[in-house]
Amino acid sequence: MTDLPPEAVPELGVYLYCLARPECLSAVGLLADEGLLGVDERYQVSALCEANVVAVTGKVVIADFSEQNLQTLSWIGERATRHEAVVARIMAASPVLPVKFGTLYRSRDSLRDFLRQHQKNIESALDQLRDKSEWSVKGYLVEEDARRIIAAEDPEVQSRRAALASSPGVRYLQQKQLDARIEAALESGVARVSQDLQQALALHALDASPLRLHASAVTGRAERMVFNGSFLLTPEMLPDFRCALADQQEAYQVIGLNLELRGPWPPYNFCPNLSETRA
Q1: pTM over 0.90
Q2: Can you say whether residue 132 is alpha, beta or left, with left for phi > 0 and alpha for psi between -120 and 50 degrees?
Q3: Number of domains in the chain
Q4: 3-class DSSP state of 228
Q5: For the segment 92-136, what is each residue's pLDDT rounded down to a tens digit?
Q6: Calpha distance 220→261 (Å, rounded)
Q7: Is residue 238 domain-resident?
Q8: Residues 233 and 135 sit within 8 Å (Cβ to Cβ)
Q9: pLDDT of 276 strictly over 60
Q10: Within this chain, do residues 247 and 143 fall inside the same structural domain, yes or no?
Q11: Are residues 148 and 117 in the same domain?
């Protein structure tokens, strides 16, 4: 019996990592042996079975997932990494439907109700995603190289540059106008390249999803992110996709664009839009 008053006993909830097939059960049992911790490292990862679907779960203290904590990167960081590690381990044993970090249910019964309500859609999605994984392509641009190339290849820029006035004041204004033209050409080119890349690479994937761009503060890179896309691939499709990516890299290397392929990831961006109602 606890010595804490009832109001001091933390309320535990059910944390959901992903949905999978029963073939993942042995992997769930090995997670603790492999040293993989759950989002709340005090509780082991477990499984809840409903028909032919397995919910990979763990216990958490519900109050820990406050709005303040969910907006604090230092709190989220390590826990989100553990979430992703669990999903990746399950993906090695079964098709998965990963769910976003912080998905909670009040009880196992409420999770069972959710599984029963969406069972057909879940099973269909698991079948469709079997032997498929998500790969990301990110494009980074060295902007100074791109501006220099634009200035060298744009006849209008060259003409205006040759006609810059000798008067400092007038020359300053003309240079500002010239810089604005180069910047506009850069932004137009970036948008066109991003669209063309998405279309070209999507031809070699089962599905594709453009993603939002991130600032340097997030990427940790000096180069500007100008492309971010996810692509759903089978292992058999990967070599052809790599070749298509290499062709695009060769075509855009001249403007200072570098493309990076990463994966395989669980198909976070290719899951069905199941109801997020919590019981």
Answers
A1: no
A2: beta
A3: 2
A4: strand
A5: 999 999 999 999 999 999 999 999 999 999 999 999 999 999 999
A6: 17
A7: yes
A8: yes
A9: no
A10: yes
A11: no
